[in-house]
């Protein structure tokens, strides 16, 4: 049993009652231990022998969660870039990460939009779900934020004031959850004993904030912007202020599928690269926001996406800033960043018996998901003010209180 206190969200009225009940049942045995057990049960009965393989006439289904981070996938579809590069692709939308994780683990999907740490988790088999997986494309860097309820404005002046709060996270194997824990611990707040972390689908974060079910969340766009728009929240800080150029979302491919469909895999990546170039072009910001706002993609007002793309945002005090690196798309995958994520999974007890605080196992787990030819260099990272050496990933954490290690 994991020693991490993560609770399911209190119900918020919406039209997906059946999904909410299923998800509550999925999580009721406790955080990611439940996710692993549920996926394992599904994997045991998955009809893998009858799964159709993509061919020229059978499209490849790419699963995604409708957040701004998935923009390269959506733009590549909308502009016909997959077809242009020779891939027959259809998209399938998932409301949250638990559902997508299950679909991928049970081989209903071979290619999926994933939070980057998910690739390490499922490739290493840190829960009972395991599937050899490659992180084939980094969709975005930066672009996330910690948003707190507006009622806390004036009373919260430092991270120490987070003590006692309920904070939403989108998934345990997310850079959000890992970076938030590290941020809290680096500032003297125990992310296990001093706060409650609550798993929430991104679409439910603002609703929970509005009804005071949570005190804040760390999450993707356009939900931070939506909280500002409806008055329920304010951005405490951009996650790039904790770790500039941090990866967030990726496109993952099952290794056995890629081995059999190398041309299609290459075409998918080429289409995503072209889409990322478009998303990085200022003259295309407005049209990209309109395209992504469509119901079949993100189903969000275009104006909520223009800020993240252009870099404009309001800080905790309501001041407007323009940061052209607020969110970027298609940056090269950073091997050192994947090592850091693997380290944090081990640090917080999310690695089970597979991924522990051991340098060699951490580095091996990170290397396993990297695309061929992508090597780990010795370049250090600066995260929450701490120097991180990817060749000595556990160094620097031995001074932490033992309660941090689960």
Automatic annotation (TrEMBL):
CDD domains: PBP2_NrtA_CpmA_like. The keyword DNA-binding does not apply. It is found in: Cell inner membrane. Pfam families: NMT1_2. Gene3D superfamilies: Periplasmic binding protein-like II. InterPro entries: NrtA/CpmA_ABC-bd_dom, TAT_signal. SUPFAM superfamilies: Periplasmic binding protein-like II (SSF53850). Keywords: Cell inner membrane, Cell membrane, Membrane, Transport. Transmembrane segments: none annotated. Belongs to the CmpA/NrtA family. This is Tat pathway signal sequence domain protein. It comes from Corynebacterium ammoniagenes DSM 20306.
């Amino acid at each position: 049993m994991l020693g991490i206190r993560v609770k399911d969200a209190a119900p918020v009225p919406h039209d997906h009652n059946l999904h909410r009940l299923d998800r509550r049942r999925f999580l009721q045995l406790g955080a990611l231990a439940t996710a692993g057990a549920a996926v394992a049960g599904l994997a045991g009965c998955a009809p893998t022998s009858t799964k159709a393989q993509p061919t020229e006439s059978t499209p490849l289904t790419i699963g995604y969660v409708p957040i701004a981070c998935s923009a390269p996938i959506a733009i590549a579809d909308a502009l016909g870039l997959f077809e242009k590069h020779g891939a027959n692709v259809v998209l399938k939308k998932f409301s949250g990460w638990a559902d997508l994780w299950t679909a991928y683990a049970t081989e209903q999907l071979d290619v999926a939009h994933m939070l980057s740490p998910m690739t390490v988790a499922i490739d290493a088999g840190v829960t009972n779900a395991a599937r050899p997986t490659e992180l084939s494309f980094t969709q975005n860097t930066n672009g996330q934020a910690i948003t707190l309820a507006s009622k806390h404005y004036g009373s919260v002046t430092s991270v120490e004031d987070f003590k006692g709060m309920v904070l939403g996270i989108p998934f345990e194997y997310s850079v959000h959850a890992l970076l938030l824990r590290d941020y809290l611990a680096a500032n003297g707040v125990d992310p296990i004993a001093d706060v409650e972390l609550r798993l929430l689908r991104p679409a439910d974060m603002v609703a929970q904030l509005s009804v005071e079910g949570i005190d804040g969340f760390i999450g993707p766009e356009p939900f931070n912007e939506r909280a500002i728009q409806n008055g329920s929240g304010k951005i405490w800080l951009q996650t790039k202020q904790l770790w500039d150029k941090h990866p967030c979302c990726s496109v993952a491919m099952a290794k056995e599928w890629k081995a059999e469909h190398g041309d299609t895999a290459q075409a998918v990546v080429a289409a995503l690269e072209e889409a990322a170039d478009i998303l990085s072009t200022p003259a295309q910001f407005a049209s990209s926001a309109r395209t992504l706002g469509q119901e079949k993609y993100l189903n969000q007002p275009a104006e909520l996406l223009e800020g993240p793309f252009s870099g404009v945002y309001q800080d905790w005090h309501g001041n407007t800033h323009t940061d052209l690196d607020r969110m970027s798309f298609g940056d090269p995958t950073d091997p050192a960043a994947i090592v850091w994520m693997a380290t944090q999974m081990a640090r917080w007890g999310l690695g089970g018996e597979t991924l522990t605080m051991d340098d060699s196992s951490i580095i091996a787990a990170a290397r396993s998901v990297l695309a061929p030819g992508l090597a780990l260099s010795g370049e250090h990272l600066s995260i929450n003010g701490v120097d991180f050496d990817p060749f000595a990933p556990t160094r620097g954490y031995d001074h932490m209180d033992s309660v941090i290690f689960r």
